[in-house]
Specification:
This is DUF2931 domain-containing protein. InterPro entries: DUF2931. It comes from Frischella perrara. By secondary structure, the protein is mainly β. The protein has one domain (40-229). The chain is built from three helices and 14 strands. It has helices at residues 2-15, 124-130, 206-215, and strands at 39-45, 51-60, 65-68, 72-74, 93-95, 100-109, 114-121, 134-138, 143-147, 151-157, 161-167, 175-179, 181-185, 228-229. The radius of gyration is 19 Å and the shape is globular.
């Protein structure tokens, strides 16, 4: 892990170019400012279609880079696994940094048996929404409270489909803020570190295999309907460099 961290630190300057010393980009004073010390991150995969995020780096709106963890759990959409449920709940990890502007994520889809790398951009309006106060009535405490959409949820699905939402208290349904741009990564590639001892992605469960055999892959998670590029290297603007 220490070697990986050093490797990332060495490569981050390449994102901005390596021909001359890096000049700090002035931070826009009008960017949204957090009224809290931390925001939260959580991951989801559609029921039957297990996925794992194993290497994530963010670029914050203040032009800093940070390695974070995303724990990806079952979305529990049993009846319609081809659709997301946006009443996500609050199983998440805290992140102590400025608000994120870009995510660079290495992840694997068990149903596809495929490694992916995705860039997900968080637009300004979504960051502004994260700091906007929302007054709500707390029945538990019998008084009004102020809540924020301070939680980011990222959905990982077969076909390289990645979706980002924001949610919080008292938000009932998560607000979608964007889709990721994704490339397929060959197994054994050094583009993303391989998290598996034998280098192979685990298979989906027998229950999931039976469901897929009966119903087939939902249209939503077929690669041709998603923003995925085949091949080893995707020419992204500011690609992730792990």
């Amino acid at each position: 892990m220490q070697k990986l961290f050093i490797f990332i630190l060495c490569l981050v300057p390449l994102i901005s170019g390596c021909q001359s010393p890096i000049k700090s980009k002035p931070i826009d004073p009008n960017l949204p400012k957090k009224p809290y010390s931390k925001w939260y991150i959580s991951g989801r995969y559609p029921h039957y279609f297990h996925a794992k995020a194993f290497s994530t780096m963010i670029k914050t709106q203040s032009n800093k880079y940070k390695i974070i963890d995303i724990v990806v759990r079952d979305n529990q959409n049993y009846e319609t696994p081809g659709q997301w449920q946006t009443g996500f709940g609050f199983s998440h990890l805290p992140v102590y940094s400025d608000l994120p502007e870009e995510f660079f994520i290495c992840w694997s889809s068990f149903a596809d048996q495929t490694f992916y790398r995705t860039k997900l951009v968080m637009p300004l309006w979504a960051r502004q929404e994260m700091v906007k106060p929302h007054q709500y009535y707390s029945y538990a405490r019998n008084k009004n409270h102020i809540g924020y959409n301070d939680t980011i949820i990222i959905g990982f699905a077969p076909g390289g489909s990645v979706t980002g939402w924001i949610t919080g208290v008292p938000q009932q349904e998560a607000i979608e803020f964007g889709k990721g741009v994704t490339e397929r990564i060959p197994q054994g590639s050094d583009v993303c570190p391989n998290p598996y001892i034998d280098g192979k992605i685990p298979e989906i469960t027998d229950e999931a295999k039976a469901w897929l055999k009966k119903h087939g892959m939902p249209k939503e998670w077929q690669e041709k309907y998603n923003n995925v590029t085949m091949g080893q290297y995707l020419k992204l603007k500011n690609p992730a460099r792990f």
